[in-house]
Design a protein that fits this description.
Elements: E1 2-5, H1 10-15, E2 20-26, H2 35-50, E3 54-58, H3 61-68, E4 87-91, H4 101-115, E5 122-123
Parallel strand pairs: 2-3, 3-5
Antiparallel strand pairs: 1-4, 2-4
Length: about 130
């Protein structure tokens, strides 16, 4: 499993859309008022739905950065600029040869949410 962050999510999918298995869209309350970001999210969601890529919204981009970057100056003091993790694409280049159990659980969660008419499930990441 590989995590890749792209400010314009489409860049990775244009190169190899078959290996993208999950799209994480992270936004906090301030981001919900950002019209440009919401339009960007809408376009990414449409692309993901069209290409059978599961989507998961995450409520705390800062905490997501801490988890994905394993605390390596994920926006803390001394960091030049916090990373932009509004759109994170998860790839699984050898899907038929190797399955990550955590990724399988996330995909199962997304599919179960769709059965309950929640097309883009939200995970609320608490602060530390």
């Amino acid at each position: 499993m590989t995590l890749e962050e792209f400010p314009a999510g489409e860049q990775k999918t244009e190169r190899d859309p078959d290996n993208v298995v999950l799209c994480l869209l992270a936004a906090d309350e301030d981001d919900d008022r950002d019209v440009a970001l919401q339009i960007h999210f809408t376009l990414i969601q449409a692309f993901c739905c069209e290409n059978d890529i599961d989507i998961l919204r995450v409520s705390n981009p800062g905490r997501l950065a801490e988890l994905l970057l394993l605390g390596a100056d994920a926006g803390g003091e001394g960091a030049a600029q916090p990373p932009d993790l509004h759109c994170v694409l998860v790839t699984n280049p050898h899907a038929s040869q190797w399955k990550d159990p955590a990724l399988s659980q996330l995909i199962c969660f997304c599919r179960e949410s769709r059965y309950m008419d929640q097309w883009v499930p939200v995970i609320n990441l608490p602060e530390r």
